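Morning F.,

Quick status update on the modeling queue. The single chain you submitted on Monday has been processed. Sequence for confirmation:
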Amino acid sequence: MMATFTVVLLLALLFAGVPVALALIGSSLAAVFIFASDLAPSIPLSIMSTASNYLLLAIPLFIMAGELAIRGKLLEPLVELTRSMLAPVPGGTGSATVLTCMFFAGITGSTAAEAAAVGSFGLPVMRKAGYPQGFSTAIIACASTFGILIPPSLTMVLFGSITQTPVGPLFIAGLLPGLVLGFSLMIMVGVLGWMGGFGKREKLDLPRVGKALIKSGWVIAMPLVVVVGIYSGLFTPTEVAAVVVAYGLAVAVLVYRAVTFRDLIDICRSTVRISCMLYLILIGASLFAFVMTAEGVPQRVVEQVVALDLSPIQFLMILNGMLLVLGCFLDGLSMLVITLPLIFPIATALAIDPLHLAVLMTVNIELGVLLPPVGINLYVLSGISGLRIEQIVRALLPFYAFLLCGLVLMTYFPFFSTWLPSMLR
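Structure tokens below.
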């Protein structure tokens, strides 16, 4: 009864427009005090165990790294490098924008931050090259989703925190799928640009490429620090986040001289604001999971699903469908923290590799940030491009098909998620 009341009240609050974090906290506390007040003394312990998790320290650090990359204008040399390399190729300017997004994904773990940053620089570049505004916006909207798949990834940090899965292997698990989807999207964008006659081809200018490579070398090293540091075991994910922040700050201040003391205060303020929002959602999710566990809901759900005798692939396909529907109404992180405590025990019972599950949930979230009416990337890029949401959605239709094909590929072939981490064992 308590679990049913919690879910019904949660849905009612969400449909009433209450922020997800407050809806989770309010529905969970109301259920405990009405149906099981004897559990109330355990609530502070649940909150503290969640908020004091060492893994979560990586969240504000990676957010700060992304803010430094945006405020420190670290994207400008990346845009110049990718454009100078690919502009001679038919449709190359669009492909260069995708490659820029892939590089930037290795600096920040936030898809919305990536959409805002690359959109600010990429849209004017593609407009100048002759790309239609709708097509340009759709390219950035889709490519920016790699920010939560290519390491570092806030989604993977949260997955590891909730399921107690090591974050290092989770980061590495997202690398190969991110690269496969990224390079596939580059080819698709290049072909569409060539077929549409978009973009002006430029002659290959090797001195320009060399100059851009030298100038952007400092920025390219940031994602390399993340991957090499974790792959080698030299740093934990939290330590890598701290190293990236220190490195990014040094580059932005000493090399590019783009960040002042006042900018640093703004960066810290923005980091604290976003981190507090995420921590509040996590606290709400921990209370929701506390209520569900107290009622034995995960155990009953596992028993019922196992009784259906579903194969792992059948379960994952059903899960994909459910997450795509939820993605229309919940932001990605909220969807993750609400559903994962129920999904993970089922996946474990079906012997589904946690790394495979993490990648699939992340790709689902990538689609969710592009789905109306809640898709956050749609609103970010609508504000930057000046296009209406429906115009962006119309331009995104071939990209939805691309991401769905990628989701099916990752579902049926766990090799993409598990091969690189297996090399570390």
